[in-house]
C-alpha cells in the first residue's frame, strides 16, 4: 500500500483564496466531501459526524454531554445546578465544532444549503450548551467569539434557498434579522468596537444592498415610480391615469 497522495494533489490544484471542494461516493457507500488545502486534502463524511466516529456510541460528543446532563438531572431531583463542563470538556466540544465548521463551509460552496443550515444549527446548540454550563465566561467565550460567523452562514444559506424561489422580501427580512442578532451579540458582550469593524456585519450589509438592487419592483412600486416620473415631466394627464390605477389597488 502506498501512502503517497502526490498523484491526487497533482491532479487537483490548490487555489489560494478560494474554497476548492468536491463531493463523491466513498468505497464504503458513504458520501464524502474533500477540501483542497495548501498542504493536501481534508476529507469528511457528508452526513453525521464529519470524521465518521461515534464517541461513546453517540452520534457526536454533544449528544454524549447532553446525556450526561440528563443523567445529572435524574440523580438530583430534576435539578441541574452544579452541572459544569470542565476546560477539557469545552476544548473537546470546540474541536468537534470545528469539524462541522469545515463541512458547512464546503456544503455552502456545493450549494447544499439545507446541509449548511443543519450543521450551523447544530453548532449553535453547542455554543448555547457551553455558554450555559461552562465553568467560567472565559471558557464560554472560546466558542462564543465565533457566533457572528455562524449566524451569518446560517442566514446566507437560508437566504440562498429563498432566492431560488425569488422570495426577495423573505431574504431581506432574514438578513435584517441576522444583522440585528449579531449587533445585539456585540452589545451583550460589551464589544461596541466590533459594531463598526465586524466582517460579518459588513458582508451582510453589502449582500443586503445587492439584494435591494436586484429585487424586482412590485406592481404598486412600478406605478409609484411611473407617477413620480410623470409628475417630474409635468405629464399631468399620465399622472392622473396612474393615480387612478393606484386607487384601484387600494
Offer a quick outline of the entry:
The chain has helices spanning 6-10, 61-75, 87-109, 113-133, 137-144, 147-164, 168-188, 194-197, 199-214, 219-232, 236-249, and strands at 20-25, 31-37, 40-45. It is mainly alpha-helical.
One letter per element, helices H and strands E, the order comes to HEEEHHHHHHHHHH
β-strand percent reads 5-15%
In total, the number of strands is 3
Q: How many whole angstroms does the radius of gyration measure?
A: 25 Å
User: pLDDT average, as an integer?
Assistant: 92
Query: Main sheet, how many strands, which sense, barrel?
Result: 3 strands, antiparallel
Walkthrough of the structure:
- Helix 4 (113-133) packs antiparallel against helix 5 (137-144) and helix 10 runs antiparallel to helix 11 (236-249).
- The chain is mostly helical and 250 residues long.
- Strands 1-2-3 form a three-stranded antiparallel sheet, covered by helices on one side.
- It has helices spanning 6-10, 61-75, 87-109, 113-133, 137-144, 147-164, 168-188, 194-197, 199-214, 219-232, 236-249; strands at 20-25, 31-37, 40-45.
- It folds into three domains: 11-145, no CATH class; 166-216; 220-249.
- Strand 1 and strand 2 (31-37) form a beta hairpin.
